[in-house]
TrEMBL record:
GO terms for cellular component: membrane. Residues 130-197 form the MAM domain. Keywords: Nucleotidyltransferase, RNA-directed DNA polymerase, Transferase. The keyword Cell membrane does not apply. It comes from the Eukaryota. This is RNA-directed DNA polymerase from mobile element jockey.
Length: 481
């Protein structure tokens, strides 16, 4: 049995051999051991399974009496679960660690207390290996957190799913099962709420069919139609074949090209020649031949703890300046800035110079698409990306009012809107409810637009299930794996 603090119930001394009668129960690190398996029988007897010993108080039932294991118990020595997850003796006193509260120390003895359903006396059963197979416990470290289990993968396109579940305790919220194919997550089963102190079974006898590339087959008519619809005003690629030639000969060459495409889909490989393209950079501003437009970014950083560290950093800047002069790669002074990342109220501020000019000090800077602030707070970045994503979503709503195909609208959302919300999320993933809600609100509005659903017609969860999408908080967790 596992305490809410993460440690499990042990017998004092380890129970490597049969414990003495009256041996105390304690809290200790380490779980999922056969010698520590407890079972609550239908009669209410709490049994140490390996040695057939029962659990009961070692003295009169009062506050603070220790609990131990005995060779026999009376029919009245019964235990039961409260609705929140406390283990209650004779429906009067509850089990808890004597010291340490919610996070007890190792070897903290277990005692009875008249107060129940407090964090320090919440327990839950963990299934361990037995003659019936192997079991694994999944649980969050803290309330409202998420826990996940990644199962072994399979190469079969059709598979059945069978598993047992045990959802009991105060912090039980929801169990969801997803099947991942490529980068997509497909929800296949879910169950919410505490299900009582008994195990259930999920048996999805119908094969889970996931559409993979190997299941997609093109035909010659589709290829010929696509070739005929090519834009002849576009330039040809590295192969030098004009698009007009492909259009004029679409019927004749479609079978051969179709066979190539199908072979690529079935093998999951793309010929290297197909990965080549003529790329023309789009000029943004200033003179096209200016080297400053194409130079790489350079960063110099150091942990500053004293004035000596400031001098070391200035020396590094001076050395970098000399190197740039020697190699005719002068720095663009207008783009060189100083950003001090700290949460100190009075940080050590030093004036740095390059080319005999003082470097501009800023409180935030955009680096590779991510806005980094001086206090390492991501509010500014999240405000920027959500504003940009909302503007793009508004543009789609205004320019595509007659677009009825939800698949196309979903594709537009994924490519133009959600891509902005998920870029580099491993760096800036929000931790506060306010910021999480701000990011999620964009997808809430987007799913309503994709399905053209009116307010109150479908819940957010129903819209996600309909579109085979995950909440953005789950997407960020998956990208962290």
């Amino acid at each position: 049995m596992r305490h809410i603090g993460g440690k499990c119930i042990h017998v004092l001394g380890g129970a490597f051999t049969k414990p003495k009668v009256g041996q105390f129960l304690v809290i200790y690190d380490g779980c999922v051991k056969d010698r520590l398996e407890f079972q609550l029988w239908p009669s209410g007897i709490l049994l140490l399974t390996r040695y057939g010993m029962c659990v009961k108080p070692t003295g009169p039932v009062t506050d603070g009496v220790r609990v131990g294991v005995f060779s026999s118990c009376n029919a009245t020595d019964t235990w039961s679960w409260t609705t929140r997850g406390s283990l209650q003796y004779k429906k009067k006193m509850c089990l808890k660690p004597e010291t340490g509260g919610r996070n007890p120390y190792n070897n903290a003895e277990l005692v009875l207390d008249s107060v129940c359903d407090e964090p320090e006396n919440l327990f839950e059963f963990m299934l361990v290996n037995s003659a019936f197979g192997w079991y694994l416990y999944i649980g969050p470290r803290q309330p409202n957190n998420k826990a996940r289990l990644i199962s072994p993968s399979t190469t079969k396109a059709k598979s059945c799913l069978l598993f047992f579940y045990y959802m009991y305790g105060y912090y039980v919220n929801e169990l969801r099962v997803y099947v991942k194919s490529g980068s997509n997550m497909y929800p296949v089963w879910s169950l919410s709420g505490e299900q009582g102190s008994k195990s259930g079974i999920c048996n999805l006898l119908q094969p889970l069919e996931i559409e993979e590339l190997s299941n997609i087959t093109l035909n010659a008519e589709e290829v010929a139609r696509s070739l005929y619809n090519l834009d002849t005003s576009k330039a040809c690629g590295p192969d030098g074949i004009p698009t007009r030639l492909l259009q004029e000969c679409s019927i004749q060459i479609a079978p051969s090209i179709c066979e190539l495409f199908n072979h690529s889909l079935h093998t999951g490989q793309i010929p290297s020649e197909w990965k080549s393209a003529n790329v023309t950079p789009i000029h943004k501003k200033d003179h096209e031949t200016s080297a400053a437009l194409y130079a790489d970014d350079t960063k110099v950083y150091k942990s500053i703890k004293s004035e000596d560290d400031c001098q070391i950093l200035q020396h590094a800047l001076t050395s970098l300046e000399c190197w740039s002069h020697d190699n005719n790669l002068d720095f663009n002074q207008s783009k060189c800035k100083v950003l001090t990342i700290t949460r100190k109220k009075t940080p050590l501020v030093h004036v740095y110079h390059m080319n005999s000019k003082e470097l501009l000090r800023v409180d935030k800077e955009k680096d590779l698409g991510v806005c980094v602030s001086a206090n390492f707070n991501w509010d500014v970045h999240i405000h920027t990306i959500t504003s940009k994503a909302n503007k793009m979503l508004g543009l789609l709503k205004r320019t595509c009012p007659l677009l009825r195909d939800k698949t196309v609208r979903r594709t537009l959302y994924l490519s133009l809107v959600r891509s902005q919300l998920c870029y580099a999320s491993e760096v800036w993933s929000p931790h506060t409810v306010k910021l999480k809600s701000r990011v999620e609100s964009v997808q809430r509005r987007a799913t309503a637009w994709i399905l053209q659903s009116k307010h109150g017609e479908m819940t957010y969860q129903q819209r996600l299930m309909n579109l085979n999408l995950l909440p953005l908080c789950y997407e960020r967790e998956i990208s962290d794996l």
